[in-house]
């Protein structure tokens, strides 16, 4: 019983630490802050954890374990692969939203955490990504090889994880509806004509007869390298999907202290460089999603953004308020090439 009480208290400490890291940032949160929030002394807290660094590791580890447990349960079900893929999309969304503070920190603040035991976290992430890739490749209708399934796994996870920035429980759409939409979007983007076992007619799209989908990872040396397990961009057919760009140099240096206008230009220039590497340009954008920490900056963003576009046919766009921790602005784009 004592062990159970100890574990419950430790879980409470991890959850509280995650909430405070999300609200105040890792650097801005002390062990004393966490202890005060829980209602114990700093000394008492050290009975459960050795340091703030260990707490950071435990937050990341908890995120990985929760996802891996969910996926393993789905893999053990006696369902066809297509249904397992649908359940995975729903399961991933409900897992990250069910422990939102933990995943908010894991997805947005990991670069601020110490490197302590980071190899364990990276190994967990790669194992999870490989499991998702295996699930994708097991769907007969998708007909993708090992290398393509890994790229698709990165794209799917990036799409699912991105919802944590904008989903609101009191919003227009339920989490189930969002999951259905994202699953359908993913399957339609990856599906090929010719083998549709387990997939409804509404999930089919026309391509060249018996042709495998052309999925290509795009890299640009003139744009910042990925800061996590994702590609700068992925090209599928004549569509280029560019991952979220933040104010960073190609060297990876973050520009969080730059003026807002400068951060915007760096973000848009990064999108443009990646678009060019993929054979396109922001002037060919069909959809742009923008995340702002302060929505009052929207007019200034729009002023600068307009100079990167073909204003005679501006793309669809949405601006989402977000508690960004890596700058004032982030943006992603879909380009027709």
From TrEMBL:
Any GO MF annotation of the entry: hydrolase activity
Keyword presence, Secreted: no
InterPro entries in the record: DNA-bd_HTH_TetR-type_CS (IPR023772), Homeodomain-like_sf (IPR009057), HTH-type_TetR-like_transc_reg (IPR050109), HTH_TetR (IPR001647), KstR2_TetR_C (IPR041490), RutC-like_sf (IPR035959), Tet_transcr_reg_TetR-rel_C_sf (IPR036271), YjgF/YER057c/UK114 (IPR006175)
UniProt keyword annotations, A-Z: DNA-binding, Hydrolase, Plasmid, Transcription, Transcription regulation
Feature: DNA-binding region: 30-49
Top-level taxon of origin: Bacteria
Domain HTH tetR-type stretches: 7-67
Short name of any one Pfam family annotated for the protein: Ribonuc_L-PSP
Name the record gives this protein: Rid family hydrolase
């Amino acid at each position: 019983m004592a062990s159970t009480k100890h574990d419950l208290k430790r879980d409470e400490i991890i959850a509280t630490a995650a909430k405070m890291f999300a609200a105040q940032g890792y650097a801005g949160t002390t062990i004393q802050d966490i202890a005060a929030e829980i209602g114990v002394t700093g000394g008492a807290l050290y009975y459960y954890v050795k340091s703030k660094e260990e707490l950071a590791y435990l937050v990341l580890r908890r995120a990985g374990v929760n996802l891996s447990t969910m996926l393993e349960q789905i893999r053990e079900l006696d369902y066809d692969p297509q249904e397992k893929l649908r359940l995975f999309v729903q399961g991933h969304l409900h897992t990250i939203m069910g422990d939102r503070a933990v995943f908010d920190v894991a997805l947005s603040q990991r670069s601020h955490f110490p490197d302590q035991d980071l190899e364990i976290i990276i190994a967990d992430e790669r194992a999870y990504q490989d499991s998702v890739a295996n699930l994708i490749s097991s769907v007969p209708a998708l007909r993708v090889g090992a290398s393509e399934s890994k790229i698709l796994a990165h794209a799917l996870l990036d799409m699912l994880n991105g919802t944590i920035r904008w989903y609101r429980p009191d919003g227009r759409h339920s989490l189930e509806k969002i999951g259905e939409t994202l699953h359908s979007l993913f399957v339609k983007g990856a599906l090929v004509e010719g083998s549709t076992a387990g997939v409804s007619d509404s999930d089919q799209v026309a391509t060249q007869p018996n042709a495998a989908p052309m999925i290509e990872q795009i890299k640009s040396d003139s744009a910042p390298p990925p800061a996590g397990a994702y590609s700068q961009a992925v090209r599928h057919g004549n569509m280029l999907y560019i991952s979220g760009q933040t104010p960073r140099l190609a060297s990876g240096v973050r520009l969080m202290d730059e003026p807002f206008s400068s951060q915007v230009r760096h973000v848009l220039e990064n999108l443009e460089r990646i678009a060019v590497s993929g054979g396109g340009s922001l002037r060919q954008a069909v959809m742009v999603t923008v995340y702002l920490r302060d929505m009052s900056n929207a007019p200034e963003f729009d002023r600068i953004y307009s100079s990167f576009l073909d204003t005679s046919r501006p793309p669809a766009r949405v601006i989402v308020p977000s508690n960004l921790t890596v700058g004032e602005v982030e943006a992603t784009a879909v380009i027709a090439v």
